[in-house]
Amino acid sequence: MKNRPRIITVANQKGGVGKTTTAINLATALAAIGERVLIVDIDPQGNASTGLGIDRQDRSVSSYDVLTGAMGIVEAALPTAVPGLSIVPSTLDLLGVEMEIAGAPDRVVRLRNALREDKGVPYSYVLIDCPPSLNLLTLNSMAAADSVLVPLQCEFFALEGLSQLLQTVDQVRRTINPNLAIQGIVLTMFDGRNNLANQVVEDVRAHMGDKVYETVIPRNVRVSEAPSYGKPAILYDLKCSGSQAYLQLASEVIRRERRLRAA
Ligand code: ADP
Ligand code: MG
Predict the structure, then answer these.
(1) Domains of the chain (ranges plus CATH)?
(2) Ligand 1 pocket check: which of 21, 153, 185 to mutate, most ligand atoms within 8 Å of Cβ?
(3) Within 13 A of 249's CA, how many CA atoms are on the CB side?
(4) Among 93, 137, 145, 224, which residue's CB has the most CB atoms within a 10 Å radius?
(5) Could you give the CA distance from residue 94 to residue 111 in angstroms, rounded to a whole number?
(6) Is the CB of 242 under 6 A from ligand 1?
(7) Measured from the CB, is residue 46 less than 6 Å from ligand 1?
(8) Residues 76-117: pLDDT tens digits?
(9) Taking the model in full, what pTM does it have?
(10) What's the CA-to-centroid distance between 3 and ligand 1, angstroms?
(11) From residue 254, how far is each of 67, 73, 96 by CA, in Å?
């Protein structure tokens, strides 16, 4: 197929674990090295859209239009202030989409079909920012993706819920997307002064082995400030520890993508 991008979905059914922050900054890092990147925001909250400076009133097109089949993915993409990075924004319309498409036989492959437009899509990477749920939207992302990237927050219950997520990945593999891989698990919001956080990192590595990226994203106030300026942390403050960690994560992701593509 022409111009087939690598598609990575950023998923975890828990909220507030760093999905959107990871999608935005990983996408920015990939764009910075010359990749043509698209974020598809499928969270009705639209945090990725806001965090990339797309105001609500400017979202005349959205992932809702793509999922309902009203619009192709390329048509629905808007440029961002980051060169090489576009976004299909989300709107609150997405809250109703599950009910609207629930009866359609192709309900789980809507996004996948949109990303495989016959004329090809002009991106080398597509990152999907999921809602905090294992709902039909997240299933659409897993059906469409080559791999799943899972952010885990460094807190006591980090591993809780991961098995349910991995079971969902297995279920998608068995049914609609046999080649779906785990890109990796990224530990986020790490605070080295906190003994518990260190313990969590050890536990997650012990359980998940080399699925876990070497890069750990530190808790960093600059990272949390950036979205209110409508900017990725990497543009807001390139030198901060969070931005540097996301750049490092991007190089790990690229290395793994090369391996997955060759497999
Ligand atoms: P999710 O998309 O999984 O709900 P977010 O990426 O929106 O999670 O992150 C949840 C909150 O934590 C946001 O306010 C975000 O700015 C903040 N945050 C995310 N990563 C970091 C970090 N590394 N350091 C500090 N704050 C962070
Ligand atoms: Mg989010």
Answers:
(1) 6-262 (3.40.50.300)
(2) 21
(3) 31
(4) 145
(5) 13
(6) yes
(7) no
(8) 999 999 999 999 999 999 999 989 999 999 999 999 999 998
(9) 0.97
(10) 32
(11) 28, 24, 35
* Closest C-alpha among 112, 150, 114 to residue 134: 150
Q: Which ligand is nearest to the CA of 46?
A: 2
Q: What is the pLDDT of residues 8-62, one digit of tens each?
A: 999 999 999 999 999 999 999 999 999 999 999 999 999 999 999 999 999 999 9
CA 24 to ligand 1: nearest atom: 6
Give the closest residue (by CA) to ligand 1 atom 16.
224
State both tokens at 219. 């808790």
